[in-house]
Specification:
By secondary structure, the protein is of the alpha+beta class. 32% of the residues lie in helices and 23% in strands.
Length: 231
């Protein structure tokens, strides 16, 4: 269940971006995030790297201090065990207050960011998505249906998703959009292509390429949904 999301110049098909594709696949492995092609992607990446590097910083320091203390205060012949302090208020404040502030900061940015990416604008272009083994089907506001995804490059897009069989997952890596599609429920997600990113992509295309669809993102089913999931 893998769809190539393609962008088409606005003046060609009435401000619509096209998309097409084949089978489920995987995004491959890399340390870096995919390029940012939606307006929400920079904030999503900022929160992710903030938490990631904060964890790396504390992991290295805590593990380093534990190793140093284990070596320095190891049991040695002739050394008597020293009494341990039962209470040290400044020390307890020092190792409690900073983590609390950091956790509150993570929660604030995570929660406000989640609300933003979960609440589509009122003028969003709505597309109904039906997931099934092993394909996607898209229904547009004019009633037209297709297995090719078309989205506007200059307007927010909201997808209303349902599954005809098993659990699927709608995943657009460059858009930073990932949402489970659950049988019997309607899942929603939204995104908007970044104008800055789109303009930059257009500058790198030849005139011939501007007259045809080009890849904006790849739509993956990120949930194992059966024997042909990776076909």
């Amino acid at each position: 269940m893998n769809r190539l999301l393609r962008a088409t110049p606005i003046y060609l098909i009435g401000a619509l971006v096209a998309a097409a594709a084949s089978g489920c696949g995987n995004t491959g492995g890399t340390f870096q995030m995919p390029e940012q092609s939606s307006v929400a992607a920079p904030f999503v990446d900022w929160v992710y790297y903030y938490i990631f590097w904060l964890c790396v910083f504390y992991f290295i320091h805590i593990m380093g201090m534990m190793g140093w203390f284990m070596w320095k205060y190891r049991r040695r012949p002739g050394h008597e065990t020293q009494p341990s302090p039962h209470h040290n208020l400044p020390l307890e404040i020092a190792w409690t207050l900073p983590p609390v502030v950091l956790v509150i900061t993570m929660f604030y940015y995570g929660f406000t960011g989640y609300v933003d990416v979960s609440t589509p604008p009122a003028d969003a272009y709505k597309i109904e998505v039906r997931a099934k083994k092993w394909d996607w089907a898209f229904t547009y506001p004019n009633g037209g249906t297709d297995t090719i995804l078309h989205v506007p490059p200059d307007q927010p897009v909201q997808v209303l998703m349902g599954s005809s069989d098993v659990l699927h997952s709608f995943f657009l890596p460059r858009m930073r959009v990932k949402k489970d599609v659950v049988p019997g429920r309607t899942s929603t997600a939204w995104w908007q292509i970044s104008k800055t990113w789109l303009d930059q992509r257009m500058k790198n295309l030849s005139e011939a390429e501007k007259q045809a669809d080009y890849i904006v993102d790849t739509l993956y089913c990120a949930e194992y949904c059966g024997t042909s999931h990776s076909a």
